[in-house]
C-alpha cells in the first residue's frame, strides 16, 4: 500500500501536467496513467479506476485522479497513524527473520518478571542462548525452567546497584559464558516507574529513580563494554521509555531518568560506531501486564504497590516483545513502541513542538493528578474534564 502511494501520487501529478500543457502528447499522458495504474493496483480494487481516468480522460481525468488519490492517501495515512503501535520506520521493516537470533548470546537484565521475562521466553523460543540477570536467583530459575531449552540458559543473579567489583565480575562471567562466545546483545531492561507529583517527590526517591533507571545501565555498560570492544562485536539494547521523548506529567523524575538514558546511549552509539559496537534505544509507551500481581513502583515518598489497570491504551506484552525483537534484529538506532494517544504526542513533540507543548500543558495537570491518585494516565477525555 505504501509503495502504491509513492507511485500513484507522483504519477497523478505527472499525468495532470502532461494533460494540461501537452494535450496532444497522448503517449506521455498514457505513460503517466500507466504509472498511476501501477500505484492504484497496490491501493486495492477500489482505486484501480483512477489510472484509467488519468490515461483516458485527459487533463480533467488526471485532475480528478490526483485529487482522489491525494485524498485517499491522506485518509490512509491518518488511519495508519491512528491504528499504528510503533514508529513507521520500524513497522515498515516488518517481522524479523526466523533465524535472526539463533545461536546468539543475549544477556537480559530485569529478566525475572514483566517484559524481561516475556522477552527471555520469546528469544529462547527463537534459538538464542540466554544469560538472565536480576537480584532474585529463585525467580530467574523459574524463568529458565519455562524456556524451551533450559540448558541454553545461564542464570546470573547480581545487584545492579552493587559495588563496581560485582558488576565487573558479572560482565566477565557473561563474556565467558557458552564457551567464551562473547555477548551479542546486552539488553538493559531493569528499571522502575513512578506515579507522583513532582512537587511532592522527595530527594531520596528522586535519587533512587536515577540510580536504577540511569546509573545502573550506564555502570553495567562500562563494565561490559571493554569485553565487547576487545571482540569487536555486540549490540547494546536499552529499554528507555516514551517518557524519554515526551515530557510525562506525574512522572517527572522518571522522565528525567529516561531522557538521560537516551542521551547517554545515543552519544555512546556515535563514539563506538567504528568499533563494531552498535546501540538500539527502545522507547516503549504503556505496556499491560500478563498477571494479576500488583505492580511495584515509586510514589512520592517511597515504593508503592498498585494493581495494573486493564486499559486498551496499553500494549499487550506479547506485542511489545515482538516489536522489540524486530527492532533488535533490524539494528535500528531508536524505536518507538506505543499506542494512541502516546504515539501521536511523540510525533507532535518531534515535528510540531509548539503544538505538542500546547497539548501537554492542557492535559498535564489532570494527568499528573490522575496518576498520583492511582487512575489511568491515558484517558485524555477524563483529564480534560478535570480542567
From TrEMBL:
The Ketoreductase domain covers 104-290
Q: What Gene3D superfamilies does this protein's entry cite?
A: NAD(P)-binding Rossmann-like Domain
What domain of life does the native source organism fall in? Eukaryota
Which SUPFAM superfamilies does UniProt cross-reference here?
NAD(P)-binding Rossmann-fold domains
- One Pfam annotation reads adh_short
Q: Where is this region: Disordered?
A: 368-387
| Stored InterPro entries | KR_dom, NAD(P)-bd_dom_sf, Sc_DH/Rdtase_CS, SDR_fam
The similarity comment for this entry is: Belongs to the short-chain dehydrogenases/reductases (SDR) family.
This one is known as Ketoreductase domain-containing protein
Species name:
Tetradesmus obliquus (Green alga)
Amino acid at each position: 500500500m505504501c509503495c502504491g502511494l509513492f507511485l500513484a501520487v507522483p504519477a497523478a501529478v505527472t499525468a495532470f501536467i502532461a494533460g494540461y500543457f501537452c494535450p496532444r502528447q497522448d503517449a506521455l499522458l498514457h505513460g503517466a496513467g500507466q504509472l498511476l495504474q501501477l500505484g492504484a493496483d497496490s491501493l486495492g480494487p477500489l482505486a484501480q479506476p483512477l489510472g484509467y481516468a488519468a490515461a483516458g480522460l485527459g487533463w480533467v481525468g488526471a485532475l480528478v485522479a490526483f485529487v482522489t488519490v491525494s485524498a485517499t492517501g491522506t485518509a490512509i495515512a491518518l488511519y495508519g497513524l491512528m491504528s499504528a503501535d510503533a514508529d513507521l520506520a520500524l513497522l515498515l521493516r516488518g517481522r524479523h527473520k526466523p533465524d535472526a537470533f539463533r545461536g546468539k548470546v543475549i544477556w537480559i537484565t530485569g529478566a525475572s518478571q514483566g517484559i524481561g521475562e516475556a522477552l527471555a521466553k520469546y528469544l529462547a523460543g527463537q534459538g538464542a542462548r540466554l544469560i538472565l540477570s536480576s537480584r532474585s536467583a529463585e525467580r530467574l530459575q523459574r524463568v529458565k525452567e519455562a524456556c524451551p531449552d533450559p540448558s541454553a540458559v545461564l542464570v546470573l543473579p547480581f545487584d545492579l546497584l552493587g559495588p563496581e567489583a560485582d558488576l565487573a565480575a558479572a560482565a566477565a562471567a557473561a563474556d565467558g559464558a557458552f564457551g567464551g562466545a562473547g555477548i551479542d546483545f546486552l539488553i538493559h531492561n531493569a528499571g522502575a516507574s513512578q506515579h507522583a507529583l513532582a512537587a511532592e517527590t522527595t530527594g531520596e526517591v528522586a535519587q533512587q529513580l536515577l540510580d536504577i533507571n540511569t546509573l545502573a545501565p550506564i555502570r553495567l555498560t562500562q563494565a561490559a563494554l571493554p569485553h565487547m570492544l576487545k571482540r569487536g562485536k555486540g549490540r547494546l539494547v536499552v529499554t528507555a521509555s516514551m517518557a524519554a521523548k515526551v515530557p510525562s506529567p506525574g512522572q517527572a523524575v522518571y522522565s528525567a531518568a529516561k531522557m538521560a538514558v537516551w542521551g547517554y546511549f545515543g552519544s555512546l552509539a556515535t563514539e563506538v560506531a567504528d568499533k563494531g559496537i552498535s546501540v538500539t534505544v527502545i522507547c516503549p509507551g504503556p505496556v499491560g501486564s500478563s498477571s494479576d500481581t500488583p505492580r511495584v513502583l515509586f510514589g512520592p515518598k517511597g515504593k508503592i504497590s498498585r494493581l495494573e489497570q486493564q486499559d486498551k491504551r496499553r500494549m499487550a506484552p506479547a506485542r511489545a516483545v515482538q516489536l522489540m525483537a524486530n527492532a533488535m534484529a533490524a539494528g535500528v538506532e531508536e524505536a518507538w513502541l506505543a499506542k494512541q494517544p502516546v504515539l501521536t504526542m511523540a510525533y507532535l513533540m518531534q515535528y510540531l513542538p509548539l503544538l505538542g507543548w500546547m497539548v501537554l500543558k492542557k492535559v498535564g495537570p489532570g494527568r499528573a493528578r490522575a496518576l498520583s491518585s492511582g487512575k489511568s494516565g491515558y484517558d485524555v477525555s477524563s483529564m480534560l474534564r478535570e480542567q
